Amino acid sequence: MDERNIYLTTVPVAEAVERVRRALDRDTLLGVETVASHEALGRVTSRPVIARCSSPTFHAAAMDGIAVRAESTFAAREGHPVTLRRGADYVEVNTGHPLPPGMDAVVMIEHVIRADGDAVFLEAPAFPWQHVRRIGEDIVATEMILPQNRTISAYDVGALLSAGIFEVEVRARVRLTFIPTGDEVLDFRSRPTPAPGQVIESNSQVFAALVRSWGAEPVCLPPVPDDRAALKAAVASALEGESQIVCVGAGSSAGSKDFTRAVFEELGQVLVHGVAVMPGKPSLLTVADNGKLLVGVPGYPVSAVVCLEDLLAPLTAWLARSARPARPEITARLARKLPSRPGMEEIVRLAVGRVGDGYVAAPLPRGAGLITSLTKAQGLARIPADSEGLEQDAQVRVELLTPRESLDRVLVHIGSHDNIIDMLGNELMGLPEPVQLVSGHVGSMGGLSALRDGTALFAGSHLFDPETEDFNFPFLARYLAEVEVLVVNLAIRHQGLIVAPGNPKDIRAVSDLARPGVAFINRQKGAGTRILLDHHLKTAGIRPEEVRGYEREEFTHMAVAVNVLTGAADCGLGIYAAAKALGLDFLPLARERYDLVIPRAHAEDPRILALLELVRSERLQAAIQALGGYETTLTGRRMRPGEGLG
Amino acid sequence: MDERNIYLTTVPVAEAVERVRRALDRDTLLGVETVASHEALGRVTSRPVIARCSSPTFHAAAMDGIAVRAESTFAAREGHPVTLRRGADYVEVNTGHPLPPGMDAVVMIEHVIRADGDAVFLEAPAFPWQHVRRIGEDIVATEMILPQNRTISAYDVGALLSAGIFEVEVRARVRLTFIPTGDEVLDFRSRPTPAPGQVIESNSQVFAALVRSWGAEPVCLPPVPDDRAALKAAVASALEGESQIVCVGAGSSAGSKDFTRAVFEELGQVLVHGVAVMPGKPSLLTVADNGKLLVGVPGYPVSAVVCLEDLLAPLTAWLARSARPARPEITARLARKLPSRPGMEEIVRLAVGRVGDGYVAAPLPRGAGLITSLTKAQGLARIPADSEGLEQDAQVRVELLTPRESLDRVLVHIGSHDNIIDMLGNELMGLPEPVQLVSGHVGSMGGLSALRDGTALFAGSHLFDPETEDFNFPFLARYLAEVEVLVVNLAIRHQGLIVAPGNPKDIRAVSDLARPGVAFINRQKGAGTRILLDHHLKTAGIRPEEVRGYEREEFTHMAVAVNVLTGAADCGLGIYAAAKALGLDFLPLARERYDLVIPRAHAEDPRILALLELVRSERLQAAIQALGGYETTLTGRRMRPGEGLG
Known about the structure:
Structural class of chain A: alpha+beta
Largest interface: A-B, 134 and 135 residues
Strand content of chain A: 25-35%
Largest sheet of chain A: 7 strands, mixed
Low-confidence stretches of chain A: 1-5
Oligomer: homodimer
């Protein structure tokens, strides 16, 4: 099967873009058209624009006041006013009025002293041409207003109209067609519910939104099944349309149904297959026989975005001759080690927020299929091909996907997952000064590590210490002694065994997890819930090896519940709220305290103050109770060591 | 007339915005609506969005290859392959396929060795769940995908569709209406040619373009004349429409026809009249009786833009609950002193480019009426109200209006004006790697100063030294001895007296400038053309005081020609190209060398190399000759002292 590994020789991104630029003739590909100036925002001039009128076309008053002959005022000084008579010596003018013949200065109304009848006094001389907008001061007829290849700004629209230019010749908009492929993809237009093996096609709409944001025009076609002839027909037809670039979604990889390369080879010349970037590697660039660009866009959403943003965005800007909008950049401290395989550039999405005086960037999960790694990221880092990655605390250059200012309103949480955290995230966005909660779910122990490393503003934690029967404080004393913290309770919650509706495997206690035929789904190491499980297994005298599925780890209560819902597991340990959300059965096992651990150094941070105010509000406590499986008797209370469940 | 000075008490920008925020009830003003998810880019969610489907909805192959039971592969190692049989031990899968029942790992196709028939070998074990995308790995049904008040990104569109969310509830778009006013303004829709006293109305279209760029919706009405009843009717009618904000263009100043405040007072409560910012001061903010916002937008284009960008943009973002896009910022060295009147914040537009290792910012002319100061600026600086301005060479914080990267492609010219400079500006934008020429016209002497101060990459100069009959070199030796420069000729050009067609005042020589009844228009001090005039006046034995208009200064040949064209002057000294462009008569006086003076430190700068390659091209020389009044015998040649006109 090795012969299908067709892109062993990958090409760096810049080289891939350059190959396409050399292969396309942009002057032939993209025509020109004439548009009204007031509708030309964002369009690109195809020739210089020459002013038809001057602005102003006359000497104009630049202030409200009176027009005078400057020399008639030269004698004026304080206490020795000059008297001027209406009509003969002065004319009242408003801003923009033409200067009357013979007049060469304007005196502001504030400096005019009204005398009897039509006379006025001046107590200061006017100098020639004061407060006068001279002919052509702004724009001179016949001069160049805009050069060729200028992306027309809002201001340019004003300059064009002021110069009497009512239409402009611009380059046509770049058009890009997207053809999704695959037997398994469902057209979102039919509002489907996917069965196993099916996915809702969404890449075409991310494509469309990105293309619009580049000032270009997307054309999205319905999905084509995995059928070589059908794909060829669709691509050939798209090549005859108006688009300069035709993209095929997925199918450029090495699978047995990946026909994109074969079809492209029949229609043109392959330039690049395989780009030296992760994700995004299976990108395919081909110049079609009619001079257009064919692109195989990888199927995974994050790979597709890299292909679109790193290859197609610069190529579209080059075709359009517009400047490619650049992302703002900052330097941030890396919250966790970031290993990377040498030989490929790697793009890693990051959750970024201000912590103390600097920015902290926490790498998001790197799967190419994780569309939520796109939606949760505030920025991204590029690890060069020759690097093995970055160490924790390294300073990393971050390309921002959000305005820099917004990072000051990002509240970074790292720690245990709870459904109330999501609820807080929503409520914080409803404040008059919204706060964006960015939450990394690495378990309670991971949260304490993050506080020690200074990479989070607070951590959610529910660590139970069987010896003292207290929560969190024994662990804080052991693992976070050097950081002074506040501990504020979020809620008491109910943990238990989550099983399918009706409990078909008849699971009653932790001891049932050792039964043959029961598949368990566990939480990751360091999760408070896993520590709770281990405590209960130990109490029941069961070794981990006896639990089938003990090694299968999920990172959130909801993910555990989904495994049970779909039959991928029979049982998991989690909170009531997760079971209830998915209509599963729940066997209570323990009540526990879920606390917010807040370094005292951040206790007065406006984001933390907003969080605590929210936690202490009656409205939030009512909403927590409505979830079920929570008690709010301690919610918002500052906890002390030894209080247990209060 | 003092009673009309109604905004003596100005309010800082931030305070003005805050007053409006306190006066408006945004929840009532802006409703919600439901839109298709794939059309929701840039819209703002009005409630949290909950996932309907998980993604994936099943355990899915994450690679092309074979699905296996991991435990059946544990014995495999190099040289000791495990044999697997199709169907029983493995199933071929492509990326995205559901994992067959019982299988729990995927082996990449690259690691599968084909044996006889349906058998394959593996030489390495698979670990459980390798290359498998687990159920809900990306999105878990019932979890929150997006919080309220989230501005939907291109990525979010993908997440929504993947989660089976096909429509979302979002806040209505903010709508803003603009009503231009003034008897003197002409509706651009009628494609008018303005007579003296008239201007083409363009602010409404700058407004429309800016409002669109904020993600809001503009409504532009035709101009209303200076008639109080008509204005009131138009505003009242707009208040009944869908817009939350109604703007009136001009008329909020203190002139005798400024009815905006009076009309607003009849329809609501004035919150702010006069903002402590220049330009932009006459802004007027009023809450209407029906809860909407009324805005008096100043009439001058730069003032209007400040009102729109500094007051209306943040208020629109606040209404919409979207993040206001921030401008990138840099620090630049100030090319010239920037005095400012204390008591008012001042916004100054800047030409910005990279020079050497840093950025240099040259203040553009500050008239509130100069729309070209908007189109020519790469950035702006704010001088705080308590400052008297900034010194030359001060480090100044610049808000960029263009991507930071583009500054590396800005070629800063400071010096004498010539029409060929505009032509070069256009041609440089046509290069494969376009260069944006930013040109400050301060005369030849000003250009040499800029080179001494390191604020320009090159200077255009045509300084004639009567003693040696040479050009530029004697001045370079005197004023720029410390900077090593190259001098490259751009063209020999013809200077002469520019007079009205048919030469009605019968001007034949410089001596005629002393005649009574002849109005002259001069160039600014330091301009090579003024030095040439002074030389010819001296030769003719005429003192400057004898020339009427000697003190009236313009900064470009074209501005001089426009004065003659409109009758504002009878004669000026300038180049043939300017006279020809406006159809004026021209009396040749001198041939002179217009050279490009380039510091050797910048001689290898890619922008300078691009410039020189262009100057030396036959195409450009042909274009120069086509202008008339130029000779290209020296064009592109490196000049040496003493060569004169060659």
